[in-house]
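DM between two lab members

TW: hey, do you still have the Beta-lactamase domain protein entry open?
JB: yeah, one sec
JB: this one, 198 aa:
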Amino acid sequence: MFFKCIEVGDVVTNCYVFGKKEVVIIDPGDDATKIENIIVENDLIPRAILLTHGHFDHFLGCCYLKQRFKLPVYAHREEKEVLLNPVYNLSYLIGSEIKMICDGYFEDGDVFEFTDFSLKVLHTPGHTPGSSCFLSDNILFSGDTLFKDSYGRADLPLGNQDMIYKSIKEKLLTLPRNTKVYPGHGVPTTISDELKNF
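TW: and the structure you got?
JB:
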């Protein structure tokens, strides 16, 4: 498998390029040319951009990469409002009013099938209404839902503390203990390690 974590933007968001020859780009939060270079240098074929949620630090690189590689962009259906509202997507905090329109919207349980791998959508609301994680075998891309020894903020617009806790307990901590967790910020962890924190 090809796996690359690229730290992007002032907020230091983890963007992931994942797959084999065909790859997906998860959360291209900024520094689109840095992501582009990884793809070109490794002779990869990107097939889609997947967003774990709609905060600006996870999608600022979308437009460039979408045009450069002719890629569709997907997010959960419940992120539409977040992506289109600069207050909800937090872009107003950087003095901008950025809106993002996706090409398609997924639901809980949807599976993205590619030539050599697949990604299953786990809807994990709480950080935002449409926050989602992506699971491929024993690899979980957790966005801003679950971090090493922590979890995502629920005090931002449309966040919900009870929902994020429920999402983690019922959707993530029930995964196999050896599942590797790659979050939207910070270092990786495992489900086994995070079970100790809940």
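TW: got it. Residues 2-195 form a domain with the Metallo-beta-lactamase; Chain A fold (CATH 3.60.15.10). Residues 3 and 164 are 27 Å apart (CA to CA).
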